[in-house]
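HUMAN: Spend a minute on the protein record below and explain its fold to me.
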Amino acid sequence: MSEEQSQPEAKVSKPASSAAELEVSTADGGKRKRYVRAQTGKDRREYVKRKIKERSEEVPDEAARNKSESSEPRLPKRRTALLIGFCGSDYQGMQANEGARTIEGELFKALCEAGAVSADNSTDQKKVQLQRAARTDKGVHAAGQVVSLKMIIEDPMIVQKINQHLPAQIRVWGFVRVVRSFNAKTMCDSRVYEYLLPTYTFMEPSEKCMELARTVPFEEREIPVSSEEEMQRKRDYRAPKEVLEFVKSAFAKYKGTHDFRNFTVTKGCTENNSKRFIHWFDVSEPMIINGSEWLSLKVKGQSFMLHQIRKMVGLVILMVRAGAPLSLMDKLFGGPRVNVPKAPGLGLLLERPVFDGYNKRASSDAQVPSGQVGFEPYEKEIGEFRQKFIYDTITKTELDEAVFDNWVMSTEVFPEQYTYINKEGTIPESAIVVPRQEARPRPRKLNASSGATAADKETAESSEDEQDSNDL
């Protein structure tokens, strides 16, 4: 007799209660229940219910109690717009980046330590849906910035507690409860940036730099270091009235809708995605700070592309120095691709993101659970912070390291890149950038001064100043 024939045959009976439950007789005479997937919808539902019940019975009561005891009480989380400001010096930009010291990294850590974010959500800021209204690059500051997230706000002292866990150069001004769909990035209508610029950058070109450009091969040139006497002469400079009038007229030409393809990186930029609308671009009256004359440039736009503001500033500086006509700017809007110089990131700061559309809805819709998203209630605190941690940092860094002077001289030592910036306002064939064309090699030697080295490094490593959802 074969082995299969020697085994007792199992007897199967089907109970009347469910087609999904079978009672099976085992070889030793015992009985056990077995559930099988039945063919009817009713039997399938019965099968699922029984399996769920069995699994729940497998969990020991003690384990369930331990889990319950170890979990922290669930506190309600509210969608909020967190209003902050920061000095970007010594930080690798706004956005969190593993291994880098960033503003978001410091902020999220403080939110967790203050109890605004629960322990369960403290491992990843995506769990609280954190979004920023604008990105800022390494070293760029913000007097006003908005971050949206789901936050625990029951503690009336939560803002003070968050600030206790933050360094002095990062501050939380307050928060506003917003609708559940609020996203600081996508609901931001426009952004206002400021750029602080020393007026000595408008001085006539240096004979020393022009002589280097004429006599030394490109790859062997070094950026010279200004002496103390030369720097003092530059800081004593005061821009004449005609220069200031030209500067104001030049920045005013950016207003309106233009094709800014020449004011961002080449990669991915086409005529289909490079148009931007600029509400206004204003120039302040000259200000004397630490013995130097400065201008405050303020621009409001719906959105800005990568490096756009710094290139807008850099172009005007070189136009003043070269005596180029304003008509050149019209040729650059949507014209052939040329290399527009990028002014130092040192002078750039985000003044505030604007939420006019959301605020209009908040003031008229009773269903919106909040007030308006704005910085008006904190103007005094922001003003004091901006002066101490932003303006003073910018002007002191320039005084110690001559960042703007080094940048200006680098453009003069290597003028081959900007031959279209001339008194005639013509764009020669040699200035046109051909996509994927091999770039001219950078010089192997740079000056060894600490100030110049810092400036060169800043220029070379800068990546993103101002970005939003429409950026490239």
